[in-house]
Amino acid sequence: KLIVSDLDVKDKKVLIRVDFNVPIKNGVIGNDNRIVAALPTIKYVVENGGKAILFSHLGRVKKEEDKKELSLRPVAERLADLIKKPVTFVPATRGAQLEEAIDKLNDGDILLVENTRFEDLDGKKESGNDPELGKYWASLGDVYVNDAFGTAHRSHASNVGIASNMDKAAAGFLLEKEIKFLGNAVDNPKHPFVAILGGAKVSDKIGVIDHLLGKADKVIIGGGMTYTFYAAKGIKIGNSLVEKDKIELAKTIIEKAGDKLVLPTDSVVAEKFDNDVPNKVVDGDIPDGYMALDIGPKSVALFKDVLKDAKTVVWNGPMGVFEMSNYAKGTLEVGEFLGTLTDATTIVGGGDSTAAVQQLGVADKLTHISTGGGASLEYLEGKTLPGIAAVSDK
Ligand code: 3PG
User: Fold this and answer.
1) Beta strands in the chain (DSSP E)
2) Catalytic one among 317, 349, 351, 387?
3) What is the ipTM of this complex?
4) Considering the entire predicted model, what is its pTM?
5) In which residues is substrate bound (predicted)?
């Protein structure tokens, strides 16, 4: 299993798959964490005399008009600012324009290819891993580096396809770091190992709950999915979120998990899904006409008690509707407490929880914030991710 620093990149055209799938609105990038996270690999290649040729998808390209909003041009500009070097942006994913731009590169130069999913307009070539496309992109370079952890759960032409057509493929530093933290946490954790799983839906998290119940010492549940578990236990849920067709499944999980499973004991409730209506804290049963929007203070205290001796913590999914200030406290307090666990490895994975810890300002105190949304979830489910398998096969 190679990583980028094992490769001789000098004078080489190094094809690098990154995940620059960042939020962009009207040409303005909302959060550039994924670009920042890719810098070590890109810097390594250019500082060692390689030509960095970057590929990424952005959003989901379904019709011709989507191309306007989904160009990677703003990302090229941000990357140039961050890396303090010019970045050649090529507004094409194939053809003479791209090939000539690559020919013109000097050692240490950086080029970003247009959104690889523009190829999806022609029969899902990128996201369907079209064999000709992977072969063509592979023909543009000498070596391949995959640093796109966020895309590792997808089998695309630009990750799996290129890798399978190259003699040499390596993981980038970000991919390596993600595997190190998430992989060690799940397969080789220091105990006590506590998982905190939140978010709205049990159905999104069932694979993770199942897998981590087999690995962790305790699994804490929070967020909207709590109330499907409440329903399974016969606790009243009022108008709280519930997945009726998952109540039986929740019962099975509760039985199987025994005292490993830790559920909230109180909730912050309101009559409407609205930050500006009165709210109150209730123990157990949610009264008729009310919905639960955050965990309550007793739950926070209970969770802290479970977490205080932990040596490994994996957190996926917020504890409440953290986007609304009156229901952010549970997520914030759990995040802040994790920040005080200096003896523990604390890892956050998944789009919403990452957004939560960043928005609430607790990200800096944690050991690792994954750049993966779906990818970190699938990784925590114990699945083999095609983007990782493609480079580790080499
Ligand atoms: C992500 O943001 O999870 C990845 O970049 C994958 O994007 P996708 O869900 O559109 O495939």
Assistant:
1) 13-17, 24-25, 28-29, 51-55, 88-90, 110-113, 143-146, 169-171, 193-197, 218-221, 261-262, 266-270, 279-283, 291-295, 312-316, 345-348, 368-369
2) 351
3) 0.98
4) 0.93
5) 19-21, 34, 57-60, 117, 154
